[in-house]
Amino acid sequence: MNVEKISISLPKDLYKELEDFINSRGIGDRSKVLQIALRNYLDENRGGNELVYGVINLVYDHELASEFLTEVQHEYNSYIISTLHIHANERICIEAIAVKGEKSKLVELTNKLSQARGILKARLLISYPYEST
């Protein structure tokens, strides 16, 4: 495996939290945890219009947002692969919308969905189609 060794500085409380997390879950490789966290950070904050895959996580009051969300999803249907809908209770719904397309279009879709009255959470999780490391 082609790797670079680096040294990082962490505040003591963050280091302790990381160590407690790793030890409580029996994770033997601190580097792997940091690699995953760094990749997630870069994926979500990188610019550009590459082809990406993602999941839009929505939490909303269906009495206030359902009609608008349906209209927007139909408008962007060429980017939507699949949708999972969960009823958290009689009013609150959770949706996981699997998407694929140019990053800017997926950000645009997420922003548009988040404008609906009744949206409690809207977050786009992005994954780039990169080779195995």
Give the secondary structure arrangement, pairings included.
Layout: H1 12-24, H2 30-45, E1 51-61, H3 62-75, E2 80-87, E3 92-102, H4 103-114, E4 119-127
Antiparallel strand pairs: 1-3, 1-4, 2-3
What do these coordinates show?
With 133 residues, the chain is an alpha+beta fold. It contains four helices and four strands; from the N terminus they run H-H-E-H-E-E-H-E. The protein has two domains: 12-45, no CATH class; 51-127, ACT-like. Chain A, domain 2 (Alpha-Beta Plaits, 2-Layer Sandwich), CATH 3.30.70. The N and C termini lie close together (8 Å). The longest helix is centred in the N-terminal third of the chain and has 16 residues, at 30-45. A four-stranded antiparallel sheet has the order 2-3-1-4. A hairpin with a 4-residue loop joins strand 2 and strand 3 (92-102).
